[in-house]
Design a protein that fits this description.
The structure holds two protein chains of two kinds.
Chain A: E1 4-11, H1 23-38, E2 47-51, H2 54-57, H3 62-66, E3 78-81, H4 85-97, E4 103-111, H5 117-122, H6 137-152, H7 156-170, H8 184-189, E5 207-216, H9 217-223, E6 228-237, H10 251-260, E7 269-271, H11 277-287, E8 294-295, H12 300-303, H13 310-323, E9 329-336, E10 342-349
Helix pairs in contact in A: 4-13, 6-11, 7-11, 10-11
Chain B: H1 23-33, E1 37-41, E2 48-49, E3 55-56, E4 61-62, E5 65-69, E6 72-81, E7 94-101, E8 108-112, E9 125-130, E10 143-148, H2 156-159
Antiparallel strand pairs in B: 1-2, 1-5, 3-4, 6-7, 6-9, 7-8, 9-10
Classes of the chains: A alpha/beta, B mainly beta.
Chain lengths: 352, 163
C-alpha cells in the first residue's frame, strides 16, 4: 500500500441559506483556499473527484457545471460520485494507490435550503413500498432513535446531552451554523419534531462546501510539515429495506472500523457523521470508542450539515487537528443513505 | 385473488426548488431591466463572458471585472425553425441564432427577424430590437430579437474561434 495523506483542507463558512451565491460561486473560494494550502500547483494536481447530488439542486449534471470552479483546461482527469464527497475521497485514494499520480483534489458541495430536504431524501427509499408512504429523513431518523432507546434502555436525556455538547463545541467552530450554549434541559424543553427527536437532535439545514487535497509519499512530506496519513479506509453497506435491518446498531460501521484498523491504536479524536444525536451514540458503540475519545470537537453535523460535504468535512476536521499537532491519531466517519445505511471509516495519523 | 405480477404502479413525484441565480447572473439580469448588457472578463485569459457565469471555466477563477457590451454583434451560427414553438418568435420559418456581441467571447442566444429566414448568414451583422422600455424586466426576453444592420458581413476568420 502506498502512503497517502491529507495535506490540505478547506470549507466554506456555512450558512442556513445562501441566496446570493450559486454552487460554483460557493465552491470557488474553497477550492482556491485548499489548493493554496496544499502547496501543490493547481495544474500539477493529478486527479479531481467530487461528490454532490443533482436532486439537491434540481438540475441534471450539476457536477459538470461545478467544474467551472476548478478550471478544467487543459483537460483534466476528473470523476464524480453521486454521494457524499467522503466517497469521492475514497475514489481518489484508490486512484492514488494505482501509483501513476501523486496528488488529488476532492470536493463536495450542497445547498439544502433550495428544496425540501425531507421530500428529496424520501426519494432514496425503496420506491415501491416505502417511499410512497411519505417518510422523510426526520421520520426514519425518529424510527431509528426509538429503536435505539428501547433496545438499550437509554433515555431522551442521553440524546439531549449529545445535542447540548455539540452546540457547545460548535461555538469554537466559525464555520458552524448552529452554535451556542444550549443545555440538555433546553433541548428537552422543545416539543419533538418526530418523537423522540427534538429540534436540537436534528442537523440544521445548511448550504456549504468543502475540499481536501491528498498527496502521496514524498510529495506529501515535502508540501506538509505534518501530513495526516490515511492508515486505513473502508466502507460498507447494509440492506436498503429498513425493515430487514437492526436499526439500533450499525454493523456496517463496526465492520468498516475493524477493517480500517480503528482498534489498533489509541484514538485522540473522532469526527462522526451523525445527523441526529442518537446516531452519534450508535456510531460510538459500533466503533468501540470509549469515553476518553473526544468526539466531534467541531460540533459535528449537528453544528453544520452541508449535505454531500458533511462526511468529507469529518475527514478534514480530523486531518486539521493532526496538521496543527493537537491530535496524533484520529478516526473520521462518513455516512450515506437512510438510517446509517452506508458507512465509511477512515483512520488518520500524524508522525513527528 | 390475482397472482399476476404487478408490472406498473403510479407514484406522483414532484420536487419544488427556489434557486438563486448567483451573484454574476443576478448582476446580468438586473442590468437587463435597465437595458444594459453586463458581461464579465476573466483576469487570466481576458475572455469576456456573456452572459457572465461568475467564473472562468478555463482558468477556474472568479470573473469580477464587469464589462458593458453593446447590443450589436454578429451571427456566428444559426438554425431555421419550421415549427411555431417559441412563444415570442415571428411566424415560422424563423431563425434562432448565436449572436456574438461586439467585445464578447461567448455568444448569446437570440432570435433573428426583419429578414427572410433563408437570407440569414453566418457573419451577418445584427442589432437588438428591444421591447418598449415599460415592458423591461430582469429577463433576456427584453430583447425581442436581433435584426440585420445592413453592414457588410464579418469575415469568417474574425469569429471562427467563437463558432
Amino acid at each position: 500500500m502506498r502512503d497517502i495523506a491529507v495535506v490540505g483542507f478547506a470549507q466554506s463558512k456555512h450558512v442556513e441559506s445562501d441566496t446570493h451565491h450559486n454552487e460554483v460561486e460557493m465552491l470557488m473560494p474553497v477550492i482556491a483556499d485548499v489548493v493554496k494550502q496544499s502547496g501543490i500547483g493547481a495544474k500539477e494536481i493529478g486527479f479531481t473527484c467530487s461528490g454532490s447530488c443533482d436532486y439537491l439542486i434540481g438540475a441534471p449534471f450539476s457536477f459538470v457545471q461545478a467544474l467551472d470552479a476548478v478550471g478544467a483546461w487543459p483537460p483534466i482527469s476528473e470523476s464524480h460520485v453521486e454521494m457524499d464527497a467522503a466517497w469521492a475521497l475514497y475514489e481518489a485514494w484508490v486512484a492514488l494507490q494505482h501509483g501513476d499520480i501523486e496528488s488529488a483534489l476532492v470536493y463536495g458541495f450542497g445547498k439544502t435550503s433550495t428544496g425540501d430536504l425531507g421530500e428529496i431524501l424520501n426519494l432514496q427509499l425503496d420506491p415501491y413500498t416505502v417511499a410512497p408512504l411519505g417518510l422523510d429523513h426526520l421520520s426514519y431518523g425518529g424510527l431509528q432513535a426509538r429503536a435505539y432507546l428501547d433496545t438499550t434502555g437509554r433515555s431522551e436525556r442521553d440524546l439531549a446531552e449529545v445535542a447540548a455538547r455539540s452546540a457547545h463545541d460548535a461555538r469554537d467552530n466559525p464555520n458552524a451554523v448552529r452554535r451556542g450554549e444550549v443545555t440538555a434541559d433546553d433541548v428537552l424543553g422543545e416539543p419533538p419534531v418526530r418523537s423522540p427527536l427534538r429540534p436540537f437532535d436534528c442537523a440544521p439545514i445548511t448550504d456549504g462546501a468543502a475540499a481536501v487535497v491528498l498527496a502521496a509519499g514524498d510529495l506529501a512530506r515535502r508540501v506538509c510539515s505534518r501530513p495526516a496519513w490515511i492508515r486505513g479506509i473502508d466502507h460498507r453497506i447494509e440492506a436498503h429495506q429498513l425493515g430487514v435491518r437492526d436499526l439500533a446498531t450499525s454493523m456496517s460501521t463496526a465492520l468498516a472500523g475493524d477493517t480500517a484498523g480503528v482498534a489498533s491504536g489509541a484514538v485522540d479524536v473522532a469526527e462522526l457523521h451523525a445527523q441526529f444525536s442518537h446516531e452519534e451514540l450508535i456510531l460510538r458503540e459500533a466503533l468501540g470508542l470509549g469515553d476518553e475519545v473526544r468526539v466531534n470537537p467541531s460540533g459535528g453535523a449537528l453544528g453544520a450539515n452541508p449535505v454531500m460535504a458533511t462526511g468529507l468535512i469529518r475527514i478534514g476536521e480530523v486531518a486539521h487537528r493532526i496538521h496543527d499537532g493537537s491530535a496524533t491519531r484520529g478516526v473520521a466517519h462518513a455516512s450515506s443513505g437512510p438510517c446509517l445505511q452506508q458507512n465509511l471509516v477512515c483512520v488518520l495519523e500524524g508522525t513527528d | 385473488m390475482s397472482t399476476e405480477p404487478v408490472t406498473m404502479m403510479v407514484e406522483a413525484i414532484r420536487l419544488d426548488f427556489e434557486l438563486g441565480a448567483g451573484t454574476a447572473q443576478s448582476r446580468f439580469l438586473l442590468g437587463l431591466a435597465d437595458g444594459e448588457l453586463r458581461g464579465q472578463r476573466c483576469p487570466v485569459c481576458r475572455k469576456v463572458y456573456m452572459p457572465p457565469r461568475g467564473s472562468c471555466p478555463t482558468d477556474g477563477v472568479p470573473t469580477e471585472e464587469e464589462v458593458l457590451l453593446p447590443d450589436h454583434g454578429i451571427v456566428t451560427t444559426f438554425c431555421v425553425v419550421n415549427l411555431q414553438f417559441h412563444p415570442a418568435a415571428p411566424p415560422a420559418p424563423y431563425v434562432c441564432a448565436q449572436v456574438l456581441l461586439d467585445g464578447a467571447d461567448t455568444p448569446l442566444f437570440g432570435l433573428v427577424a426583419g429578414v427572410p429566414a433563408d437570407e440569414v448568414r453566418m457573419g451577418m451583422k445584427v442589432k437588438a430590437e428591444w421591447k418598449p422600455r415599460e415592458e423591461w424586466t430582469t429577463n433576456l426576453m427584453n430583447i425581442k430579437w436581433f435584426q440585420p444592420t445592413g453592414e457588410p458581413d464579418a469575415a469568417y476568420e474574425t469569429y471562427q474561434e467563437h463558432v
